[in-house]
Amino acid sequence: MEPRVVLRELFDAAVKAADPAAAVAAHLPQPPKGRTVVIGAGKAAIPMAAALEQNWRGPLEGFVVAPHGYRHELTRIGVHFASHPVPDDASLAAADRALALASTLGPDDLLIALISGGGSALMSKPVRGIDLMEKLDLVRALLKCGASIAELNCVRKQVSGVKGGRLAKAAGRARLHTLVVSDVPGDDPAIVASGPTVADPTRKRDALEILNRYRIVIPAAVKAWLEGPDDDRSLAEADREVHVVVSPHESFRAARRRAEALGLQVLYLGDRIEGESRDVAKVHAGIAMEIAQYRQPVAPPCVILSGGETSVTVRGKGRGGRNVEFVLALAISLAGERKIQALAADTDGIDGMEPTAGAFIDPHSLDRARARGLDPIAFLEGNDAHSFFEALGDQLVTGPTHTNVNDFRAILVAP
């Protein structure tokens, strides 16, 4: 089987395992005495809502927020479309709508929250006194500086009117049942989509420290808010359950099973890997070279699998993208090693802000690039790996996968 076909099969196995439909059906609560209201946000919101509609016998009302362009066939749960990864006016309207709907609930009612990656942008509302553009500028600056997802979401939560448990607070004493499709290392539901229904352990001072650490210019209104006392986000005593129903770990188990069925040894490095994409790539290259040359720590044919969420500190004028930057840096480190091919891609089908999941490399990638007059190192230094792989025709384009369990990396080492 062609190496790229193998790599794509492993990626597809991981994405298929992240389909939330069966997981949602297995984690439904008991119906309430009163109303059942659904509020959801994220790239998996529509299939999660579809599974709920198919398996819930009583009345349903509410809505979910999904990215513009997503399709659906929902009949009982409404769909509100908004922008990702940068919020728009529709994101603000979604947050207002969610808070207003939650505030109508009483102790006999049930709120089912369907939360997945991407929800932070899709349902976005700054606290009073802070302009939406000021909040967006902070997020962009953190992304450009290479902040981790936990750091990014800490700042988001501290300046948000809906994240960090504020949606749960609006629901008062209603029962709350949260189902989460995780896209974060460690599967902390307080981090996924910035935890709109989960109590937040961070405080304003934490966000201020993060912004100061990255030397980000803080707007006066934001600084005044973060230097003030913490707002009351305590949650009322109520029946509250949170279930992570889909996680990266399960996706990699599926990819591993498929690899073994194809006769490959598997070296799994875990799904919690963070750090600069190019630095992580150097480590992966070293492991792959050790296998190729010395058959340690596993013997080829084998595949190295890893996940997590790396970051890119944007210094150039390129389009970023942590997976394509990883795989370009990997190719440079491998320097044409003839036994190794690889794929790195985001399981949601979007790497950074581009409608491209990721990219492939093979032993001839650098030679093919140079034959076209492309300097791989220049593209890496300019954070423009998307343009590099677009020119080579080596992009992986899947379209929206309607799920998100973060990054998928597979490095194939031949005998």
What would your notes on this structure say?
39% of the residues lie in helices and 17% in strands. By secondary structure, it is of the alpha/beta class. The strands form two sheets. It has a six-stranded parallel β-sheet. A six-stranded mixed β-sheet has the order 7-8-12-9-10-11, sandwiched between helices. Helix 12 (277-294) runs parallel beside helix 13. The protein is globular, with a radius of gyration of 22 Å. The mean pLDDT is 94.
Question: What is the CATH C-level name of the largest domain?
Answer: Alpha Beta
Taking pLDDT < 50 over at least 5 consecutive residues as the criterion, the unreliable ranges are: none
Instruction: Using the CA coordinates, give the radius of gyration.
Output: 22 Å
Give average pLDDT, whole number. Answer: 94
Oligomer description: single chain
Strand content: 15-25%
Using the alpha-carbon principal axes, give the shape: globular
The tally of helices reads 16
Overall CATH architecture of the largest domain: 3-Layer(aba) Sandwich
Assign a percent range to the helix content: 25-40%
Tally of domains: 2
Largest sheet: 6 strands, parallel
- CATH-defined fold name of the largest domain: Rossmann fold
Alpha carbon gap, first and last residue: 14 Å
Number of strands: 12
Order of helices and strands: HHEHEEHEHHHHEHHEHEHEHEEHHHEE
